[in-house]
């Protein structure tokens, strides 16, 4: 479970969120939407330990320092990849950063590529992938350290209908694997979720299930 | 760390400017030295004993060119180490992946220094030419290589630090290469354009780094050496070569180095200073990256690159 308490988001002098908290259970998909500038990306950075702004824990362990940050997989906005590396090399690099032994890396990379459906493109340079393929590779990269929780910032941005369908299917699989998934997006946009929260006007409010 | 080195090397080798820089580093000294040798050994009427005395000059020529290239090339290589990640939008996923700042910066530094070391090693066979010509020994070649090595360390450290402050690789590279050129050639340019006058000890050392002057230049003794002088690798090179060669370096075969220049331990000080500078710049880089991480990496506007990668 990923849990955040005492959230306080601030951009310059503007306080975007004061005193919020949230928790995502294993296998649960929580969607947070909000208008532009509400602080969704900043919240994502706080949750993965890249910015200060609250106490974040995964299964009780703080998301701080090298080991702590590995407990949360992160898909930032834009799905930037190393375009000069192949699909496989992109993943190998991140599994290496995750501290996996070299022998184990190849198997993990192969498993991840199969999971995201890119095994046939393993030798392709990342710069040649379609937006949907890039997004799936970025999700695989977020899973390199096998984290129990995932934070996805605007995962559907720039994807066509096919790319969205692929990603929806992938998120279903990840939830079924027991990952706690937190999705931040401008609007719900057909994203399957178990709970929906709105970040607006300095507060994080849960939307009642219909 | 090996993964980081492999990734950075791939990035460097994919840069279209890299083959040109490597070609210039290796080819130009080969062509110049070849032409030089052809002129000396043809029907020029120059006695063979004079040719042997020109070994020192050839060593100086190769060492100077390679140090110039490395002083400008090291910041170019280091420019993309951190600024490249920020520009491509990969800094956030990289930091989120969990490497410590220390290992991240050290891995990148090792990649850049390792790449430049390969370049340095590739240029070593060129030193066979002055050795064959004569007038120098292995120790002088070793000192030249040492000064090249310390140039790599100093300028990579500076380039890494600049990269930590920058957002665009092009801008960082431009500033770094400009700084490398100014550190090596700037002082010499000032000297050559200034009106003729009496030189202080430090000015003389500076001038000797870049030009041939007769040994009877009037010298005014100066007690202290300005700190910036240690940052010019060409000054260190000349100090390293001339200290024991004593001849053939200053433009006239058989002319001894001026007494003021003998026994002056500038090259050792410069080598030690370069290592120290590398350590300091690495530590400051870690601090800068730490501070910038807390401030959040500036998000560069999304744009489509030629190959279609979107950056965030």
Note down, in words, how this protein is organized.
The complex is a heterodimer of chains A (210) and B (312). In chain A, 32% of the residues lie in helices and 28% in strands. Chain A is of the alpha/beta class and 210 residues long. Chain A starts with a strand and ends with a strand. With 312 residues, chain B is mainly alpha-helical. Chain B has helices at 2-14, 17-41, 48-53, 55-79, 83-88, 91-96, 101-122, 128-133, 138-165, 169-193, 201-208, 233-245, 266-294; strands spanning 199-200, 219-220, 303-304, 310-311. Chain B has a two-stranded parallel sheet. In chain B, strands 3-4 form a two-stranded antiparallel sheet. In chain B, strand 3 (303-304) and strand 4 form a beta hairpin. Chain B is elongated, with a radius of gyration of 22 Å. In chain B, 44% of the residues are buried. At the A-B interface, helix 1, helix 2, strand 6, helix 3 and helix 5 of A face helix 1, helix 6 and strand 4 of B.
What is the compact description of this entry?
The complex is a heterodimer of chains A (210) and B (312). Chain A is of the alpha/beta class. In chain A, 32% of the residues lie in helices and 28% in strands.
